[in-house]
Amino acid sequence: MELMIEVTNKNAENLLRRISDRYEVFSPKHRTLAKYVLENYLGLAYVTISEFARKAGVSETTIVRFACLLGYTGFADFMAALREEIEKSKAASYALSEYVLERGKYEFPRDAMRAIFTLEISVMEETLAKTPADLFERAVDAIYSASNLVIIGCGANRCLSQAAYFAFGVLRPNVNIVEHFGLTAKNLFESIPKNAACLVFSTPRYDKETQLILECFEQRGKHKPFVVGVTDSLLSPIAPHADLVLQVPEKFVLFMDTNAAYMALIHALAFALHLKNPDYSRKRIEAYDAFVKEHNFFVRDYLDLIDF
Questions:
Q1: Has this prediction a pTM greater than 0.85?
Q2: CB 116 within 8 A of CB 256
C-alpha cells in the first residue's frame, strides 16, 4: 500500500517527505504514527510526548524509536525539526487578510466611516458563520462550570481582556485577569485550583507573552485549565494550546484589529452565561448595581439595569 500525501508547501517537504518515503518499511505501529503525523502535523508543534502518544494512539517508546528511525537523536530533536517546518509552512501560507476598499464604491475621506463599518460588519458575519452552535455552547459550558476563570489578553488585546473581565466578573465568582507575563501570572499558575478555565484572546501578530502564559499553564499537566482560545485562525500559535477555538477572521486596512466581532462574541458569551442560571445571575447583577450606587461610580446611577 502506498501512502499518498499532498505536500502543499515545499518548505514542509523535507520532514514530511522523509516520513512518506519510509512509510513502506515502517512497522505497523510506526505506520500508524506516520499517518497521524502526516495528517495532523500543523497541530503538533507544542505537544508533550505523553500528549503526542495519546493523540496518535501509540506508546511514548514508539514515538522515540520513530524519531530515531528518521535520523533524529530523540524526541526533542524531532520536535525541534517539526516546529521549524511548521513555522515555515505557516509563514508561507498565512498572511494578514487585507480588506480592499473599492475606490469606485467610496469617496474618501467622506466615506471612511461607512467603509470601516462595512468591514466590521463583514467580519462579524463571518465570525457568526464560523461558530457552530455546539462549539459556542461548549465554550459557555466551560466558562460556567469552571472553578476559576482566567481571562488572558496581552498587548493590544488588553481591551478585550478588560471587557471580558468586567462582564464575567459581574456574572460569576473567582474571575482573574492576566495581561502580562510576570510575578502575578506566576502566582496564579501555582495557586489556581483544578477544574479552572482560561479565556484567551490573541490577534495577529500574536503577542509572545500570551504564548509564555499558556505554556506555563500547560506545565500543570492533568490539572491544566480548560482553554477557550479566541483568535483569527486555526493556524494561530495559541490553537495548539486551546481545547477549543472560536475564530474571528480578521481583515485589515490599517494596523488596528477589527475588534467589533470580538466584543460581540464577549457580549454573546456573557448573555449565554446569564441564561445558564438567570436567578443567580440576577442576584449577581443586583449586588454589582448596589455596590456601584453605594460608591457613586456613575453620574446617572439612578438608572436600573436591564432585566432580561
A1: no
A2: no
